[in-house]
Amino acid sequence: xxxxxxxxxxxEGITQRFGPxxxxxxxxxxxxxxxxxxxxxxxxxxxxxxxxxLSGHLVxxxxxxxxxxxxxGAGGVREAERRGVVLVHQEILLAPDLTAAENIFLGRxxxxxxxxxxxxxxxxxxxxxxxxxAQIPPDTPVHRLxxxxxxxxxxxxxxxxxxxxxxxxxxxxxxxxxxxEALIAVIRRIxxxxxxxxxxxxxxxEVKLLATRVTVLRDGRRVDTVPAETLDTAGMxxxxxxxxxxxxxxxxxxxxESAETVLEAEDVQVPGFVHGASFRLGRxxxxxFAGLVGAxxxxxxxxxxxxxxxxxxxxxxxxxxxxxxxxxxxxAGIVYLSEDRKGKGLLLxxxxxxxxxxxxxxxxxxxxxxNRARExxxxxxxxxxxxxxxxxxxxxxxxxxxxxxxxxxxxxxxxLDPRIVVIDEPTRGIDIGTKAEIYRFVAELAKGGTSVxxxxxxxxxxxxxxxxxxxMREGRVAGEVAGERMTERAIVMLATGTNEKExxxxxxxx
Length: 510
Fold this sequence. Notes:
6-stranded mixed beta sheet; repeat; alpha/beta; ATP hydrolysis activity; ATP-binding
Protein backbone atom coordinates (compact mmCIF):
# COMPACT_ATOMS: atom_id res chain seq x y z
CA UNK A 1 0.00 0.00 0.00
CA UNK A 2 1.41 3.40 -0.96
CA UNK A 3 1.99 6.16 1.60
CA UNK A 4 -0.76 8.18 -0.10
CA UNK A 5 -3.40 5.48 0.39
CA UNK A 6 -2.26 3.99 3.70
CA UNK A 7 -4.56 5.16 6.51
CA UNK A 8 -3.08 7.68 8.89
CA UNK A 9 -5.50 6.41 11.54
CA UNK A 10 -7.49 3.17 11.73
CA UNK A 11 -9.83 1.38 14.09
CA GLU A 12 -9.85 -2.42 13.80
CA GLY A 13 -12.66 -4.37 15.42
CA ILE A 14 -13.13 -1.92 18.29
CA THR A 15 -15.33 -3.18 21.12
CA GLN A 16 -15.97 -1.22 24.30
CA ARG A 17 -17.76 -2.43 27.41
CA PHE A 18 -18.54 -0.53 30.60
CA GLY A 19 -19.23 -3.30 33.08
CA PRO A 20 -21.71 -5.69 31.47
CA UNK A 21 -22.91 -3.10 28.95
CA UNK A 22 -21.41 -3.11 25.44
CA UNK A 23 -21.47 0.37 23.89
CA UNK A 24 -19.33 -0.42 20.81
CA UNK A 25 -19.31 -3.74 19.01
CA UNK A 26 -16.67 -4.70 16.41
CA UNK A 27 -16.41 -1.22 14.84
CA UNK A 28 -13.81 -0.64 12.12
CA UNK A 29 -13.00 2.47 10.07
CA UNK A 30 -10.06 4.13 8.37
CA UNK A 31 -8.98 7.74 7.95
CA UNK A 32 -6.91 8.57 4.87
CA UNK A 33 -4.52 11.52 4.50
CA UNK A 34 -6.23 14.55 3.00
CA UNK A 35 -9.84 13.39 3.47
CA UNK A 36 -12.74 14.48 5.63
CA UNK A 37 -14.35 11.31 6.96
CA UNK A 38 -17.66 12.09 8.69
CA UNK A 39 -18.98 9.95 11.54
CA UNK A 40 -22.73 10.30 12.11
CA UNK A 41 -25.34 8.62 14.28
CA UNK A 42 -28.00 9.31 16.87
CA UNK A 43 -27.10 10.45 20.38
CA UNK A 44 -25.90 7.37 22.22
CA UNK A 45 -24.78 5.55 19.07
CA UNK A 46 -21.20 5.41 20.38
CA UNK A 47 -19.55 8.19 18.36
CA UNK A 48 -17.91 10.05 21.23
CA UNK A 49 -16.71 6.79 22.83
CA UNK A 50 -15.07 5.80 19.56
CA UNK A 51 -13.41 9.22 19.29
CA UNK A 52 -11.99 8.91 22.79
CA UNK A 53 -10.54 5.52 21.90
CA LEU A 54 -9.00 6.79 18.64
CA SER A 55 -7.36 9.73 20.45
CA GLY A 56 -5.98 7.67 23.32
CA HIS A 57 -8.39 8.86 26.00
CA LEU A 58 -9.85 5.36 26.43
CA VAL A 59 -8.32 1.89 26.05
CA UNK A 60 -10.74 -0.37 24.14
CA UNK A 61 -12.01 -3.61 25.61
CA UNK A 62 -11.30 -5.30 22.29
CA UNK A 63 -9.69 -4.46 18.94
CA UNK A 64 -6.88 -2.01 18.30
CA UNK A 65 -6.03 1.48 17.02
CA UNK A 66 -3.32 1.95 14.38
CA UNK A 67 -1.39 5.16 13.69
CA UNK A 68 0.44 4.99 10.36
CA UNK A 69 0.07 1.22 10.52
CA UNK A 70 1.63 0.87 13.98
CA UNK A 71 -0.48 0.13 17.08
CA UNK A 72 -1.22 2.91 19.56
CA GLY A 73 0.68 1.86 22.65
CA ALA A 74 0.08 2.38 26.35
CA GLY A 75 1.04 6.07 26.16
CA GLY A 76 -2.58 7.09 25.67
CA VAL A 77 -3.32 10.74 24.92
CA ARG A 78 0.30 11.88 25.12
CA GLU A 79 1.46 9.25 22.68
CA ALA A 80 -1.43 9.99 20.29
CA GLU A 81 -0.69 13.74 20.33
CA ARG A 82 3.06 13.14 19.95
CA ARG A 83 2.30 11.05 16.85
CA GLY A 84 -0.02 13.72 15.44
CA VAL A 85 -3.58 12.83 16.52
CA VAL A 86 -5.55 15.73 18.00
CA LEU A 87 -9.10 15.65 19.43
CA VAL A 88 -11.19 18.83 19.52
CA HIS A 89 -13.68 18.04 22.29
CA GLN A 90 -17.38 18.84 22.16
CA GLU A 91 -17.24 19.81 25.85
CA ILE A 92 -15.56 23.11 26.73
CA LEU A 93 -12.35 22.19 28.58
CA LEU A 94 -10.86 25.58 29.43
CA ALA A 95 -9.71 27.35 32.60
CA PRO A 96 -12.34 30.11 33.03
CA ASP A 97 -10.15 32.49 35.03
CA LEU A 98 -7.30 32.46 32.51
CA THR A 99 -7.28 34.58 29.35
CA ALA A 100 -7.95 33.20 25.88
CA ALA A 101 -4.22 33.36 25.08
CA GLU A 102 -3.26 31.67 28.36
CA ASN A 103 -5.68 28.83 27.62
CA ILE A 104 -4.43 28.41 24.06
CA PHE A 105 -0.80 28.14 25.23
CA LEU A 106 -1.43 26.46 28.61
CA GLY A 107 1.47 24.09 29.27
CA ARG A 108 3.44 25.30 26.24
CA UNK A 109 3.89 29.01 26.95
CA UNK A 110 6.52 30.86 24.88
CA UNK A 111 9.35 32.07 27.08
CA UNK A 112 12.07 34.64 27.08
CA UNK A 113 14.59 33.07 29.38
CA UNK A 114 12.71 31.95 32.50
CA UNK A 115 9.85 34.44 31.98
CA UNK A 116 6.70 33.86 29.93
CA UNK A 117 6.77 36.06 26.82
CA UNK A 118 3.24 37.44 27.08
CA UNK A 119 3.61 39.75 24.11
CA UNK A 120 4.50 36.81 21.84
CA UNK A 121 1.79 34.66 23.42
CA UNK A 122 -0.93 37.27 22.84
CA UNK A 123 0.32 37.94 19.31
CA UNK A 124 0.35 34.28 18.29
CA UNK A 125 -2.96 33.54 20.03
CA UNK A 126 -4.55 36.49 18.23
CA UNK A 127 -3.27 35.15 14.91
CA UNK A 128 -4.61 31.66 15.66
CA UNK A 129 -8.04 33.06 16.54
CA UNK A 130 -8.10 35.33 13.49
CA UNK A 131 -7.38 32.28 11.33
CA UNK A 132 -10.67 30.86 12.63
CA UNK A 133 -12.51 34.09 11.85
CA ALA A 134 -12.86 34.88 15.56
CA GLN A 135 -12.72 38.48 16.72
CA ILE A 136 -11.67 37.70 20.30
CA PRO A 137 -9.11 39.87 22.13
CA PRO A 138 -6.52 37.31 23.31
CA ASP A 139 -6.20 38.95 26.74
CA THR A 140 -9.93 38.46 27.53
CA PRO A 141 -10.65 36.12 30.48
CA VAL A 142 -12.50 33.04 29.24
CA HIS A 143 -15.34 33.45 31.76
CA ARG A 144 -16.32 36.64 29.92
CA LEU A 145 -16.64 34.85 26.58
CA UNK A 146 -19.79 33.32 25.12
CA UNK A 147 -19.99 29.55 24.67
CA UNK A 148 -19.37 29.99 20.93
CA UNK A 149 -16.26 32.07 21.60
CA UNK A 150 -14.97 29.52 24.12
CA UNK A 151 -15.36 26.78 21.52
CA UNK A 152 -13.25 28.79 19.07
CA UNK A 153 -10.55 29.24 21.73
CA UNK A 154 -10.56 25.48 22.30
CA UNK A 155 -10.24 24.78 18.57
CA UNK A 156 -7.37 27.28 18.28
CA UNK A 157 -5.59 25.53 21.16
CA UNK A 158 -5.96 22.09 19.54
CA UNK A 159 -4.71 23.21 16.13
CA UNK A 160 -1.48 24.64 17.56
CA UNK A 161 -0.24 21.08 18.12
CA UNK A 162 1.53 19.56 15.05
CA UNK A 163 -1.13 17.28 13.61
CA UNK A 164 -1.59 14.58 10.97
CA UNK A 165 -5.10 13.56 12.03
CA UNK A 166 -7.64 15.91 13.63
CA UNK A 167 -10.85 14.63 15.22
CA UNK A 168 -13.61 17.25 15.46
CA UNK A 169 -16.46 16.33 17.84
CA UNK A 170 -19.44 18.62 17.06
CA UNK A 171 -17.19 21.66 16.43
CA UNK A 172 -19.94 23.95 15.10
CA UNK A 173 -22.69 23.12 17.61
CA UNK A 174 -22.34 26.50 19.34
CA UNK A 175 -21.08 28.61 16.42
CA UNK A 176 -22.88 31.25 14.38
CA UNK A 177 -23.26 30.76 10.61
CA UNK A 178 -20.37 33.22 10.03
CA UNK A 179 -18.11 31.39 12.51
CA UNK A 180 -19.13 28.05 10.98
CA GLU A 181 -18.16 29.26 7.50
CA ALA A 182 -14.76 30.39 8.83
CA LEU A 183 -14.17 27.01 10.50
CA ILE A 184 -15.17 25.11 7.35
CA ALA A 185 -12.63 27.18 5.41
CA VAL A 186 -9.96 26.27 8.00
CA ILE A 187 -10.87 22.57 7.77
CA ARG A 188 -10.51 22.68 3.99
CA ARG A 189 -7.07 24.31 4.30
CA ILE A 190 -5.99 21.63 6.78
CA UNK A 191 -7.23 18.89 4.45
CA UNK A 192 -5.34 20.40 1.50
CA UNK A 193 -2.13 20.01 3.53
CA UNK A 194 -2.71 16.23 3.58
CA UNK A 195 -4.11 16.05 7.11
CA UNK A 196 -6.85 13.49 7.70
CA UNK A 197 -9.98 14.85 9.41
CA UNK A 198 -12.54 12.78 11.27
CA UNK A 199 -15.66 14.91 11.62
CA UNK A 200 -18.62 14.29 13.94
CA UNK A 201 -21.67 16.49 13.41
CA UNK A 202 -25.43 16.34 13.67
CA UNK A 203 -25.65 19.14 11.10
CA UNK A 204 -26.13 16.94 8.05
CA UNK A 205 -25.85 19.76 5.46
CA GLU A 206 -22.34 20.42 6.82
CA VAL A 207 -21.50 16.74 6.45
CA LYS A 208 -22.70 16.78 2.85
CA LEU A 209 -20.68 19.94 2.19
CA LEU A 210 -17.41 18.73 3.73
CA ALA A 211 -17.17 14.96 3.77
CA THR A 212 -15.40 12.61 1.38
CA ARG A 213 -16.77 9.50 3.08
CA VAL A 214 -19.47 8.94 5.70
CA THR A 215 -19.56 6.21 8.35
CA VAL A 216 -22.86 5.63 10.15
CA LEU A 217 -23.08 4.19 13.68
CA ARG A 218 -26.31 2.88 15.16
CA ASP A 219 -26.59 1.28 18.61
CA GLY A 220 -22.82 0.87 18.87
CA ARG A 221 -22.39 -0.87 15.50
CA ARG A 222 -21.15 0.33 12.14
CA VAL A 223 -24.10 0.37 9.73
CA ASP A 224 -22.14 1.34 6.62
CA THR A 225 -19.33 3.46 5.18
CA VAL A 226 -20.22 5.13 1.88
CA PRO A 227 -18.92 7.91 -0.38
CA ALA A 228 -20.54 11.18 0.69
CA GLU A 229 -21.52 11.96 -2.90
CA THR A 230 -23.92 8.98 -2.91
CA LEU A 231 -25.99 10.30 0.03
CA ASP A 232 -28.27 13.28 0.51
CA THR A 233 -29.22 14.51 3.98
CA ALA A 234 -32.45 12.46 3.97
CA GLY A 235 -30.45 9.33 3.19
CA MET A 236 -28.04 10.10 6.04
CA UNK A 237 -30.94 10.56 8.46
CA UNK A 238 -32.52 7.30 7.33
CA UNK A 239 -29.28 5.36 7.96
CA UNK A 240 -28.85 7.04 11.37
CA UNK A 241 -32.28 6.31 12.79
CA UNK A 242 -33.20 3.21 10.78
CA UNK A 243 -36.37 4.80 9.44
CA UNK A 244 -37.56 7.77 7.44
CA UNK A 245 -37.79 11.03 9.38
CA UNK A 246 -40.76 12.17 7.36
CA UNK A 247 -41.51 15.43 9.09
CA UNK A 248 -39.05 17.24 11.36
CA UNK A 249 -41.38 20.01 12.55
CA UNK A 250 -44.90 19.37 13.85
CA UNK A 251 -47.97 21.16 12.55
CA UNK A 252 -48.43 24.50 14.29
CA UNK A 253 -51.65 25.64 15.92
CA UNK A 254 -51.44 29.41 15.40
CA UNK A 255 -51.63 31.18 18.78
CA UNK A 256 -50.72 34.51 17.19
CA GLU A 257 -51.54 38.01 18.34
CA SER A 258 -55.10 37.13 19.38
CA ALA A 259 -53.92 34.91 22.24
CA GLU A 260 -54.38 36.13 25.81
CA THR A 261 -51.19 37.82 27.03
CA VAL A 262 -49.53 35.96 29.91
CA LEU A 263 -46.14 37.69 30.04
CA GLU A 264 -45.07 41.23 29.17
CA ALA A 265 -41.59 42.70 29.39
CA GLU A 266 -41.20 46.45 29.01
CA ASP A 267 -37.96 48.44 28.68
CA VAL A 268 -35.78 45.69 30.17
CA GLN A 269 -32.18 46.77 30.72
CA VAL A 270 -29.36 44.32 31.46
CA PRO A 271 -26.20 46.39 32.00
CA GLY A 272 -23.71 45.81 29.20
CA PHE A 273 -25.99 43.49 27.25
CA VAL A 274 -29.62 44.61 26.79
CA HIS A 275 -30.83 48.16 26.19
CA GLY A 276 -34.57 48.69 26.54
CA ALA A 277 -36.07 45.44 25.20
CA SER A 278 -39.85 44.92 25.21
CA PHE A 279 -42.06 42.02 24.12
CA ARG A 280 -45.27 40.12 24.92
CA LEU A 281 -46.01 36.39 25.08
CA GLY A 282 -49.43 34.87 24.46
CA ARG A 283 -50.98 31.85 26.16
CA UNK A 284 -50.06 28.71 24.25
CA UNK A 285 -47.75 30.66 21.95
CA UNK A 286 -44.28 29.59 20.84
CA UNK A 287 -42.26 32.81 20.61
CA UNK A 288 -38.80 32.68 19.05
CA PHE A 289 -35.79 34.92 19.68
CA ALA A 290 -33.23 35.16 16.87
CA GLY A 291 -30.05 37.18 16.49
CA LEU A 292 -26.30 36.91 16.21
CA VAL A 293 -24.15 35.71 19.11
CA GLY A 294 -23.79 38.67 21.47
CA ALA A 295 -27.14 40.22 20.47
CA UNK A 296 -28.41 39.87 24.04
CA UNK A 297 -31.01 37.09 23.65
CA UNK A 298 -29.77 34.88 26.50
CA UNK A 299 -28.95 37.87 28.70
CA UNK A 300 -32.50 39.23 28.25
CA UNK A 301 -34.01 35.95 29.47
CA UNK A 302 -31.55 35.72 32.37
CA UNK A 303 -32.31 39.31 33.35
CA UNK A 304 -36.07 38.71 33.40
CA UNK A 305 -35.63 35.56 35.50
CA UNK A 306 -33.26 37.19 38.05
CA UNK A 307 -30.22 35.26 36.86
CA UNK A 308 -28.58 38.62 36.08
CA UNK A 309 -29.09 42.13 37.47
CA UNK A 310 -31.74 43.90 35.39
CA UNK A 311 -34.25 46.74 35.46
CA UNK A 312 -37.55 47.28 33.68
CA UNK A 313 -41.13 46.16 34.08
CA UNK A 314 -42.29 42.52 33.92
CA UNK A 315 -45.99 41.63 34.11
CA UNK A 316 -47.64 38.26 34.57
CA UNK A 317 -51.34 38.20 33.63
CA UNK A 318 -51.27 41.99 33.63
CA UNK A 319 -49.83 42.34 37.15
CA UNK A 320 -46.31 43.65 37.70
CA UNK A 321 -43.93 41.17 39.33
CA UNK A 322 -40.40 41.52 40.68
CA UNK A 323 -38.22 38.44 40.83
CA UNK A 324 -35.38 38.87 43.31
CA UNK A 325 -33.96 35.40 42.71
CA UNK A 326 -34.55 32.58 40.19
CA UNK A 327 -36.62 30.62 42.70
CA UNK A 328 -39.19 33.45 42.65
CA UNK A 329 -39.66 32.94 38.89
CA UNK A 330 -40.04 29.18 39.34
CA UNK A 331 -42.66 29.69 42.02
CA ALA A 332 -44.52 31.97 39.60
CA GLY A 333 -44.57 29.16 37.05
CA ILE A 334 -41.65 30.15 34.78
CA VAL A 335 -38.86 27.65 34.16
CA TYR A 336 -35.63 28.16 32.23
CA LEU A 337 -33.61 25.53 30.36
CA SER A 338 -30.12 26.98 29.95
CA GLU A 339 -28.13 26.67 26.72
CA ASP A 340 -25.33 25.29 28.94
CA ARG A 341 -27.07 22.13 30.08
CA LYS A 342 -23.80 20.61 31.31
CA GLY A 343 -22.64 23.65 33.30
CA LYS A 344 -25.92 25.18 34.50
CA GLY A 345 -28.71 22.69 33.87
CA LEU A 346 -27.57 19.37 35.32
CA LEU A 347 -25.29 18.02 38.04
CA LEU A 348 -23.18 15.73 35.89
CA UNK A 349 -21.57 13.92 38.82
CA UNK A 350 -24.98 13.03 40.34
CA UNK A 351 -27.35 10.26 39.34
CA UNK A 352 -30.46 10.65 37.18
CA UNK A 353 -32.88 10.51 40.09
CA UNK A 354 -31.13 13.34 41.96
CA UNK A 355 -31.07 15.51 38.84
CA UNK A 356 -34.70 14.85 38.00
CA UNK A 357 -36.21 15.68 41.39
CA UNK A 358 -33.85 18.36 42.73
CA UNK A 359 -35.93 21.38 41.66
CA UNK A 360 -39.20 19.80 42.89
CA UNK A 361 -38.10 18.11 46.14
CA UNK A 362 -41.22 19.30 47.97
CA UNK A 363 -43.25 16.87 45.86
CA UNK A 364 -41.21 14.00 47.22
CA UNK A 365 -41.15 14.88 50.92
CA UNK A 366 -42.45 12.13 53.15
CA UNK A 367 -42.16 11.61 56.91
CA UNK A 368 -38.77 12.88 58.07
CA UNK A 369 -37.09 12.89 54.67
CA UNK A 370 -37.43 12.25 50.96
CA ASN A 371 -39.63 9.42 49.72
CA ARG A 372 -37.12 7.49 47.58
CA ALA A 373 -39.76 5.12 46.22
CA ARG A 374 -41.73 8.09 44.90
CA GLU A 375 -38.55 9.52 43.35
CA UNK A 376 -37.78 6.18 41.68
CA UNK A 377 -41.32 6.02 40.29
CA UNK A 378 -40.96 9.57 38.92
CA UNK A 379 -37.68 8.60 37.24
CA UNK A 380 -39.23 5.56 35.59
CA UNK A 381 -42.10 7.73 34.35
CA UNK A 382 -39.67 10.33 32.96
CA UNK A 383 -37.58 7.65 31.22
CA UNK A 384 -40.72 6.30 29.57
CA UNK A 385 -42.49 9.57 28.70
CA UNK A 386 -39.40 11.45 27.52
CA UNK A 387 -37.76 8.41 25.91
CA UNK A 388 -34.54 8.86 27.93
CA UNK A 389 -32.33 6.11 26.59
CA UNK A 390 -30.20 4.75 29.39
CA UNK A 391 -28.72 1.31 29.89
CA UNK A 392 -29.02 1.73 33.67
CA UNK A 393 -31.19 4.24 35.63
CA UNK A 394 -28.40 4.40 38.22
CA UNK A 395 -26.06 6.11 35.76
CA UNK A 396 -24.67 9.58 36.41
CA UNK A 397 -26.11 12.41 34.31
CA UNK A 398 -22.68 12.99 32.77
CA UNK A 399 -22.74 9.46 31.35
CA UNK A 400 -25.77 10.19 29.18
CA UNK A 401 -25.46 11.38 25.59
CA UNK A 402 -26.19 15.04 24.87
CA UNK A 403 -29.69 14.37 23.56
CA UNK A 404 -30.63 12.28 26.58
CA UNK A 405 -29.24 14.95 28.90
CA UNK A 406 -31.55 17.46 27.24
CA UNK A 407 -34.52 15.11 27.68
CA UNK A 408 -33.62 14.70 31.37
CA UNK A 409 -33.47 18.48 31.77
CA UNK A 410 -36.90 18.81 30.15
CA UNK A 411 -38.33 16.15 32.43
CA UNK A 412 -36.79 17.88 35.46
CA UNK A 413 -38.43 21.20 34.63
CA UNK A 414 -41.80 19.66 33.77
CA UNK A 415 -42.05 18.35 37.35
CA LEU A 416 -42.59 21.99 38.34
CA ASP A 417 -45.82 22.16 36.28
CA PRO A 418 -44.78 25.43 34.57
CA ARG A 419 -47.05 27.92 32.83
CA ILE A 420 -44.16 29.40 30.84
CA VAL A 421 -41.09 27.53 29.56
CA VAL A 422 -37.98 29.34 28.30
CA ILE A 423 -35.67 27.06 26.29
CA ASP A 424 -32.25 28.37 25.20
CA GLU A 425 -30.70 26.47 22.24
CA PRO A 426 -33.01 23.45 22.67
CA THR A 427 -31.28 21.13 20.17
CA ARG A 428 -27.62 22.17 20.22
CA GLY A 429 -25.46 19.08 19.61
CA ILE A 430 -28.50 16.81 19.22
CA ASP A 431 -29.19 14.31 16.43
CA ILE A 432 -32.04 14.68 13.96
CA GLY A 433 -34.22 11.96 15.49
CA THR A 434 -34.03 13.51 18.97
CA LYS A 435 -34.62 16.97 17.49
CA ALA A 436 -37.93 15.79 16.06
CA GLU A 437 -38.91 14.39 19.47
CA ILE A 438 -38.11 17.68 21.24
CA TYR A 439 -39.98 19.71 18.63
CA ARG A 440 -43.06 17.52 19.07
CA PHE A 441 -42.81 17.92 22.84
CA VAL A 442 -42.63 21.73 22.56
CA ALA A 443 -45.61 21.75 20.21
CA GLU A 444 -47.61 19.57 22.62
CA LEU A 445 -46.78 21.95 25.48
CA ALA A 446 -48.15 24.89 23.49
CA LYS A 447 -51.20 22.91 22.41
CA GLY A 448 -51.94 22.27 26.08
CA GLY A 449 -51.83 26.01 26.87
CA THR A 450 -48.24 26.33 28.11
CA SER A 451 -46.43 29.34 26.66
CA VAL A 452 -42.93 28.72 25.29
CA UNK A 453 -40.01 31.03 24.47
CA UNK A 454 -37.34 29.49 22.22
CA UNK A 455 -33.93 31.16 21.93
CA UNK A 456 -32.00 29.64 19.04
CA UNK A 457 -29.19 30.32 16.58
CA UNK A 458 -30.80 27.86 14.15
CA UNK A 459 -33.04 29.88 11.83
CA UNK A 460 -34.77 26.83 10.27
CA UNK A 461 -35.58 25.65 13.81
CA UNK A 462 -37.21 28.97 14.73
CA UNK A 463 -39.10 29.22 11.43
CA UNK A 464 -40.33 25.63 11.63
CA UNK A 465 -41.38 25.75 15.29
CA UNK A 466 -42.48 29.28 16.27
CA UNK A 467 -45.62 31.38 15.84
CA UNK A 468 -43.61 34.61 15.87
CA UNK A 469 -39.92 35.47 15.90
CA UNK A 470 -38.38 38.55 17.51
CA UNK A 471 -34.96 39.45 16.15
CA MET A 472 -32.41 41.08 18.46
CA ARG A 473 -29.45 43.21 17.46
CA GLU A 474 -26.93 44.86 19.77
CA GLY A 475 -29.11 44.43 22.85
CA ARG A 476 -32.34 45.69 21.29
CA VAL A 477 -35.35 44.11 19.62
CA ALA A 478 -34.74 45.03 15.98
CA GLY A 479 -38.03 43.72 14.62
CA GLU A 480 -40.55 40.90 14.38
CA VAL A 481 -41.52 38.41 11.70
CA ALA A 482 -44.51 36.07 11.76
CA GLY A 483 -46.42 33.59 9.63
CA GLU A 484 -45.51 33.66 5.94
CA ARG A 485 -43.26 36.63 6.63
CA MET A 486 -40.82 34.38 8.51
CA THR A 487 -37.88 33.89 6.15
CA GLU A 488 -34.16 33.47 6.74
CA ARG A 489 -33.53 36.55 4.61
CA ALA A 490 -35.79 38.73 6.75
CA ILE A 491 -34.21 37.44 9.96
CA VAL A 492 -30.65 37.97 8.72
CA MET A 493 -31.36 41.50 7.56
CA LEU A 494 -32.90 42.45 10.90
CA ALA A 495 -30.10 40.72 12.82
CA THR A 496 -27.35 42.50 10.90
CA GLY A 497 -29.05 45.86 10.35
CA THR A 498 -28.32 45.61 6.64
CA ASN A 499 -30.44 48.11 4.72
CA GLU A 500 -33.07 48.53 7.40
CA LYS A 501 -35.58 50.07 5.03
CA GLU A 502 -35.44 47.03 2.76
CA UNK A 503 -35.47 44.70 5.80
CA UNK A 504 -38.74 46.26 6.95
CA UNK A 505 -40.24 45.75 3.50
CA UNK A 506 -39.04 42.16 3.44
CA UNK A 507 -40.59 41.52 6.86
CA UNK A 508 -43.87 42.98 5.56
CA UNK A 509 -44.05 41.40 2.14
CA UNK A 510 -41.82 38.29 2.08
